[in-house]
């Protein structure tokens, strides 16, 4: 009996010792599992800033996908903050939210600096035959009829019509605008962008929007199948490029076009209605590795005008060895349709800038 009692006493003693060892450990676990009092001031302030940013965000200023992604992230972090947190989790949430806010702010459509707008013709005058560009340059565009050698008396000067914004200019039968007081150097930089609203009335090749010495320097036109087509002559080779999308510019429809060229980066990009449709680089167009060539000078020694609505002058075309005179109206390269908000920039517009430009100008 004594041995049994002694055994029980030893067992009780061991259990007591074990309890002494375990109790502090259990107490520490309880302390770790308790919700500690965290300072949520910073993250709650940041959440409020993000919610305010979202409440004022529209698709005019941000891509719709960026707004949706940012809103989802803010809501997710807000829910997490309302739950049980420790300091490590709180710190991670702060980092995530700051990064999401920065990413969203950087997705905003960019405004184009005024000093980059080389020349703009809005055609909102609604009258007159001499149209002065706004922007850095004040170039005078004179309305001209199509060449009588091609069209006889069956032509007229461009006419004002309703456009995307205010008035636009309608071209037909060789009618065009001639700019003689332009700076050749300004149009031959390695960075150049052209923005214009186009409403062709015919699906035809050689629907010329503007021309700086045609393919001897650069030109922009709509080809058949409704594809925009840009040509630039560089010190390496000539570049002919389109956006490779059929029916990008349907007839009797206003469509926004931007061509953005950066020969320093060796890229040429096409945008249709604010969306990037094609980017060429020197691997696909080797000529993009060069710089723009010097201004072309005809054999006559007289520089050609910068032209809006046609490719070149009749005097110049009649000297080309491959041209058979007389030139028929169907063989003359001119724009048939309407143009609005023609802008020329001395920089390569970014995707964000093009999107903002499109959103600002569309009805």
Textual characterization of the structure:
- The structure is a single chain.
- The protein is α+β, with helices and mostly antiparallel strands and 363 residues long.
- The protein has two domains: 41-106, Substrate Binding Domain Of Dnak, Chain:A, Domain 2 (Up-down Bundle), CATH 1.20.1270; 114-361, Jelly Rolls, CATH 2.60.120.200.
- It is 29% helix and 26% strand.
- The protein is built from seven helices and 16 strands.
- The strands form two sheets. Strands 1, 4, 5, 7, 12, 13, 14 and 16 form an eight-stranded antiparallel sheet that branches.
- Strand 12 and strand 13 (267-272) form a beta hairpin.
- Helix 2 (41-55) runs antiparallel to helix 3.
- The protein is elongated and about 90 Å long.
- It starts with a helix and ends with a helix.
- The model is unreliable at 1-35 (pLDDT under 50).
Can you describe this structure in just a few lines?
This protein folds into two domains: 41-106, Substrate Binding Domain Of Dnak, Chain:A, Domain 2 (Up-down Bundle), CATH 1.20.1270; 114-361, Jelly Rolls, CATH 2.60.120.200. Residues 1-35 have low confidence and may be disordered. It has seven helices and 16 strands.
Low-confidence stretches: 1-35
Query: Cα distance, first to last residue?
Result: 104 Å
> What is the number of domains?
2
Strand content: 25-35%
Residues in helix, % = 25-40%
Question: Could you say which overall geometry the principal axes of the C-alpha atoms support?
Answer: elongated
Rg, nearest Å = 34 Å
What letter string, H or E per element, gives the SSE order?
HHHHEEEHEEEEEEEEEEEEHEH
Oligomer: single chain
């Amino acid at each position: 009996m004594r041995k049994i009692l002694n055994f029980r006493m030893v067992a009780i003693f061991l259990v007591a010792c074990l309890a002494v060892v375990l109790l502090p450990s259990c107490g520490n676990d309880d302390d770790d599992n308790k919700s500690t009092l965290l300072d949520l001031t910073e993250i709650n302030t940041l959440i409020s800033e993000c919610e305010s940013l979202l409440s004022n965000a529209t698709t005019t200023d941000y891509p719709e996908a960026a707004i949706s992604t940012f809103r989802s992230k803010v809501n997710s972090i807000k829910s997490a903050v309302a739950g049980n947190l420790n300091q490590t989790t709180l710190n991670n949430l702060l980092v995530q939210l700051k990064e999401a806010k920065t990413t969203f702010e950087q997705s905003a459509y960019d405004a184009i600096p005024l000093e980059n707008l080389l020349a703009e013709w809005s055609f909102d005058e609604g009258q007159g035959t001499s149209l002065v560009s706004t922007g850095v340059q004040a170039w005078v565009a004179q309305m001209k009829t199509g060449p009588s050698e091609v069209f006889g008396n069956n032509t007229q000067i461009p006419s004002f019509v309703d456009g995307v914004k205010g008035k636009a200019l309608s071209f037909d039968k060789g009618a065009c605008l001639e700019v003689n007081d332009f700076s050749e150097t300004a149009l031959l930089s390695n960075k150049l962008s052209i923005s214009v609203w186009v409403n062709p009335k015919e699906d035809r090749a050689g629907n010329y929007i503007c021309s700086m010495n045609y393919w001897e320097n650069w030109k922009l036109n709509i080809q058949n199948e409704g594809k925009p087509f840009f040509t630039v002559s560089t010190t390496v080779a000539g570049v002919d490029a389109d956006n490779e999308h059929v029916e990008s510019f349907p007839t009797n429809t206003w469509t926004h076009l931007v061509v953005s060229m950066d020969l320093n980066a060796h890229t040429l990009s096409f945008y249709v209605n604010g969306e990037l449709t094609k980017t060429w680089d020197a691997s696909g167009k080797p000529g993009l590795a060069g710089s723009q060539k010097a201004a072309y000078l005809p054999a006559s020694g007289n520089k050609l005008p910068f032209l809006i609505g046609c490719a070149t002058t009749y005097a110049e075309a009649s000297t080309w060895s491959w041209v058979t005179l007389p030139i028929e109206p169907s063989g003359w390269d001119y724009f048939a349709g309407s143009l609005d908000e023609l802008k020329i920039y001395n920089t390569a517009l970014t995707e964000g800038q093009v999107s903002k430009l499109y959103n600002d100008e569309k009805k």
